[in-house]
Write a structure and sequence with these properties.
This protein is α/β, with parallel strands linked by helices. It has helices at about 1-15, 20-25, 100-105; strands spanning about 30-35, 60, 70-75, 80-90, 95-100, 115-125. It has a six-stranded mixed beta barrel. The longest helix is centred in the first third of the chain and has 15 residues, at about 1-15. The chain is globular and about 30 Å long. The termini are far apart.
Length: about 130
């Protein structure tokens, strides 16, 4: 427990200094669950990263991954996948792991279903410029 507290404190301190240790720790991380996509009415609203949501970009919301993290989202039934950038927080619906932009949802065939099972794989975080 002591090691965990020290590790957590170190990661928190480095994160405050702007170091990408947290994103690096997630690299290769896999998660599965249900995904949904943002409704068109959110188009243009500001995201947690500060940029407006654009339904035509490949972006997504995740509760805990650092903003700017690149994630491969795969529909396990069809095998179709898309790479998105996390630029917002959410989803806030129980049982869902990610909210996709309309463009990303369209890439994997989620638009017609509305909600579907997906697998996530963290690919990494791009450079600081233009999160």
């Amino acid at each position: 427990m002591k090691k965990t507290l020290i590790s957590s404190a170190l990661i928190a301190a480095l994160h405050l200094l702007g170091t990408d240790v947290q994103a690096a720790g997630f690299h290769g991380h896999a998660q599965s669950g249900r995904a949904s996509y943002y409704h068109d009415r959110f188009n243009g609203r500001r995201t947690a990263s500060g940029v407006p949501y654009n339904k035509n970009e490949l972006s997504a919301a995740h509760k805990t991954l650092p903003l700017g993290t690149r994630v491969r989202v795969t529909d396990p039934r069809s095998g179709r996948s898309v790479i998105v950038r996390i630029n917002d927080r959410g989803p806030y619906v129980r049982g869902r792991v990610i909210d996709l932009s309309r463009a990303a949802a369209s890439e994997i065939g989620l638009v017609s279903k509305g909600v579907g099972k997906v697998q996530l794989e963290v690919l990494g975080r791009p450079e600081k410029a233009g999160i």
